[in-house]
Automatic annotation (TrEMBL):
Keywords: Actin-binding, ATP-binding, Motor protein, Myosin, Nucleotide-binding. Residues 34-194 form the Myosin motor domain. The gene is MYO19. This is Myosin XIX. GO terms for molecular function: actin filament binding; ATP binding; microfilament motor activity. It comes from Nomascus leucogenys (Northern white-cheeked gibbon). Belongs to the TRAFAC class myosin-kinesin ATPase superfamily. Myosin family. One of its GO terms (cellular component) is myosin complex.
Amino acid sequence: LFQVNGHNPGSDGQAREYLREDLQEFPGGEVLLYKLDDLTRVNPVTLETVLRCLQARYMADTFYTNAGCTLVALNPFKPVPQLYSPELMREYHAAPQPQKLKPHVFTVGEQTYRNVKSLIEPVNQSIVVSGESGAGKSWTSCCLMKFYAVVATSPASWESHKIAERIEQRILNSNPVMEAFGECDFLSKVSSDS
Ligand SMILES: Nc1ncnc2c1ncn2[C@@H]1O[C@H](COP(=O)(O)OP(=O)(O)OP(=O)(O)O)[C@@H](O)[C@H]1O
């Protein structure tokens, strides 16, 4: 918090004072906070203001927020089917500039997919999904696999539709294997998933 602000308070009292100053400078009330879809635009950037922004977005049922080129995903702790529909996947897939749409895990999926398809080095792509236990890492990985399964084929004909279904099933079937790797114990440490 204080490194970000450049403050180096000597005591808790001073720390609280700096925080109060930061919050007084913070523009817009809670009402507009949920509209900030990139945390780098929160000004000033403090732990408090970033959390308040994420909280406001959460209250507005907005669960994805950019932080520069990183995507912050909040666990909604409730089903949000409209956020993961095949129609929405296709919208992100078809968008000329998916990064201009609302922040979403599909943007990340689509960008990596385009990078692979362009065959420009580096062709292989990695997506780092991190967070504490229960944050939604498995959910996010599964979403990405579903996304690739849906967009990787264009079911124009009956035959290609069948191929698409087969690929989708294979990708989804690989999930238990991926999960099993997540459950493993390492020589140096026990996985947090165990
Ligand atoms: N975007 C989401 N929409 C709906 N439910 C979600 C979402 N993200 C996570 N959840 C729910 O939250 C719970 C925890 O998510 P998940 O298992 O993906 O966490 P995790 O980060 O993989 O945890 P761990 O590290 O302990 O394995 C799951 O029951 C999942 O259904």
